[in-house]
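Extended Data, record 9661_t:CDS:1
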Amino acid sequence: MFAGSFLAGIIPLFFQLSEERLRITSALGIGLLVGTSLVVIIPEGIETLYSIEFSNDISVKEILPYLSQGPDAPTSADSSSGTITNSMKRRDDLDLDADGEDASLLFSPPPSHSHKNSTHRYVGLSLLLGFVLMFLIDQIGAPHAHAYTSEFPERHSPASSEHLDMSSDLEAPKHQLSSITIGLVIHAAADGIALGASANQPNLELMVFLAIMLHKAPSAFGLCAVLLREGLGRRQIRRRVAIFSASAPTTAILTWILLGNIGDVGTAKALWWTAVLLLFSGGTFLYVAMHVMKDLNGSERGHTSKLPRKIVTAVIIGMFAPILLELGHL
């Protein structure tokens, strides 16, 4: 991922590419972001969250705190030996020795509607937090943080960039270029969380990787073009593109390590955090896709409300591609 993103990012330093092809690639990546979030990441996160409640490999005592109180609730049951049936038997045995009502309540599940309400709350909250994070990044960072996806350099001038809302004879301040770079690095880091969370879900990993790569490659290219236009040296450009390219793999590895330290794959705690991070990533994907689609629409010449057919077709193909790739295990 680092190598692919970095090589795509430094292309403007050496080659002159067709603007139309770059637009089509960007449109395909946007469609993949939408399709991956709606078809792959969010459904898988919801399924993982609800599977904790019904799994026969995890005891009732371990499951219920995560459904009703969240991941910080204490657990003491052994997931490898506690089945639902054995847990209920232990409850009956405990009732004979302990104060009947208190011991029964320790293992008895709360009313079914509390499970659903609690789980629904975590689904919505995780999606919302991911969406809000990207919104805050846009507001705190540069106002042109997403412009890299919507406007690529013209064929006659690799260093030109129409998407900056300023006159062509004015240069962006240095702090604004730094804000653009920081904003893109944080965006890429959020993508890495999705990849790291999907590492425990083999059927997700490839699809998430493809979606991120098709999104990051045009992003790195656009970042390089903006920095080149504003007069930064080639060494500085390479360094910033390298930082951007390394952000997603770094956060993916950190997320994977974090999930590994939380617990073994398959335990309630690990499953809970995997599901929450997948849903959080789905929220970030939805925001980025929504924002870059708006930028793509506004970047056409004349700022018309309609996109060319090639662009529309590329977006739709990207949206439905995850469904085709998911047919093997749906």
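Summary. The chain has twelve helices and no strands.
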